[in-house]
Write a structure and sequence with these properties.
about 110 residues; four-stranded antiparallel sheet
Length: about 110
């Protein structure tokens, strides 16, 4: 069974580019890193984002703890970590049908 997710990992407290690179490397070891953006200051969040599949038997919370602990280990200190897990297999959506009536109304407005 496919378990496709987009994970956004937001970290507050990174102090420099070296720490951002360390975290990017950790994320690459545990997940696919599609994009990341640095924080403007130590009080802002740096973000790391990617789409991939969870390991068999692993839940969102398991992944969050695993990636968080790996980040703390790499930095050898505490930083605030927020993981946003978006399940991509069953996203909510709306369906809109544009029928001939809408077409006729549009044509009359032209």
């Amino acid at each position: 069974m496919s378990r496709n997710y987009e994970m956004d990992i937001l970290i507050t407290g990174l102090t420099d580019q070296a720490e951002i690179k360390k975290v990017a490397n950790v994320v690459r070891e545990h997940w696919v890193l599609d994009d990341y953006w640095p924080a403007g200051s130590e009080n802002e969040q740096a973000g790391f984002s990617g789409k991939h599949q969870l390991a068999v038997g692993e839940g969102e919370d398991d992944f969050s703890y695993r990636i968080g602990q790996a980040i703390w280990k790499a930095l050898d200190r505490y930083v605030e970590i927020e993981v946003r897990a978006t399940y991509l297999e069953d996203l909510p959506y709306e369906v809109y049908y544009l029928e001939e009536q809408e077409y006729q109304e549009w044509r009359e407005q032209q």
